[in-house]
Specification:
This protein is an alpha/beta fold. Helix content is about 45%, strand content about 15%. It has helices at about 35-50, 70-80, 120-125, 155-160, 165-170, 180-185, 195-210, 210-230, 230-235, 235-245, 250-260; strands at about 10-15, 20-25, 55-60, 110, 115, 130-135, 135-140, 190. One of its GO terms (molecular function) is catalytic activity.
Length: about 270
Amino acid sequence: MSVAEHPEGSIDCEVLDHVLLISINRPAKRNGFTPKMFRELGEAYTRLDDEPALRVGVLHAMGEHFTAGLDLPTIAPLMRRGEKAIPLGLVEPTDLGTPGYRRRTKPMMVAVKGITFTLGIELMLAADIVIAADNCRFSQLEVRRGIMATGGATLRMAERAGLGNALLHLLTGDEFGSAEALRLHFVQKVVPAGQELDEALRLAQSIAAQAPLAVTATRLNALKAVEHGPLAAMQDFIEVQQRLSNSEDAAEGVRSFIEKRPARFTGR
């Protein structure tokens, strides 16, 4: 997909069967995010959750880099007023549970490459599975600009890598590569540059072939275990399994097992 670049950038969407491909499109500015792009990203994530035919999202970027982060001159006025660029009521891409915003329910893959600074790291940490090119340059450099990372890095870096490893990168704003991101569990796979989107799409299509209700329930239960603890997540087991077992997809799962064929799930 190739869409002309808007001066303020754009977030472009393409449907590939049950996968929503979401493209960050402002390569001339290293995909620096403007208020317009934030708004459109929220709309894209909301579309993924609201359209029943869509089962998995894949976020990637046009050009050589994922994103240099915020286009600070356009975003700073919002920061000073304490405002957010994404309209209330939409799905929040950083998935923080901010009051007034929805949380994503369906899986999101992210393919990162080249410069992946600040917001780029926060978007990938908020996603479910991250594929990184081996040429990535990561930096959470807000402290170098006199501000703090407020898109989830302070929470999720420590959760994934431990407090010391998180503060090593948060407090220095240093630059690190794909191997370090893999070691710290910020990304799940590293592939040769140029293959990251293909690999993300391959995994997304594999997830999209599974039973959608079961995929969503599994994701939400794993997330609940991380955020509220394993005992809280375990308390949902019987209720969720009973609901899934009475779905058309569970019946199809049994039929496909008996008939020794791939299941054809409908999400009902």
